[in-house]
């Protein structure tokens, strides 16, 4: 019987690294963005929604690639998706399209 070596906390994968890897899967990214949008609709705090966009952008090729697909420069994109960002609906629609998603309306 072999003993499993225990890893120290510093050797464990970081949550954000795991999350970015997980969000490469389109279905997981879809659920993640939907959940963030629902939370935004409940509490009105845009920061978690913008963070979700940043995470999905990183998972789907990075900010530079997203900037290229949306015809936005990287600085504008980083500012738009920052905690203090306030993107317009058209900008969010453009970001979603570039990431392979679209806006949808559902009745409660």
Distance between the termini: 55 Å
Form type: globular
SSE pattern, N- to C-terminal? HHHHHH
Domain module count:
1
> Tally the helices: what do you get?
6
In which range does the helix fraction lie?
Answer: 55-70%
The strand count comes to 0
- The assigned structural class equals mainly alpha
Biggest sheet overview: none
Which stretches are poorly predicted, pLDDT < 50 over at least 5 residues? none
Computed over alpha carbons, the radius of gyration is: 17 Å
| Overall pLDDT | 90
Strand-residue proportion: under 5%
Structure, described:
Helix content is 60%, strand content 0%. The longest helix is centred in the first third of the chain and has 18 residues, at 26-43. Helix 1 (15-22) crosses helix 3. It has six helices and no strands. The N and C termini lie far apart (55 Å). With 108 residues, it is mainly alpha-helical. The chain has helices at 15-22, 26-43, 47-59, 63-70, 74-80, 89-99. It has one domain (15-99).
Draw up the topology in text.
Elements: H1 15-22, H2 26-43, H3 47-59, H4 63-70, H5 74-80, H6 89-99
Helix pairs in contact: 1-3, 2-3
Task: Give the structure's gist in a few sentences.
This protein is mostly helical and 108 residues long.
Which descriptors apply to this entry?
108 residues, mainly alpha, 60% helix
């Amino acid at each position: 019987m072999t003993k499993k070596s225990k890893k120290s906390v510093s050797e464990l994968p970081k949550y954000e690294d795991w999350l970015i890897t997980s969000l490469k899967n389109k279905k997981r990214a879809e659920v993640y963005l939907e959940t963030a949008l629902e939370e935004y609709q409940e509490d009105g705090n845009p920061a978690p929604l913008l963070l979700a966009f940043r995470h999905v952008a990183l998972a789907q090729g990075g900010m530079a690639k997203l900037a290229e697909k949306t015809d936005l420069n990287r600085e504008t994109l980083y500012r738009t998706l920052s905690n203090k960002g306030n993107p317009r609906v058209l900008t969010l629609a453009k970001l979603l399209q570039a990431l392979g998603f679209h806006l949808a309306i559902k009745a409660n």
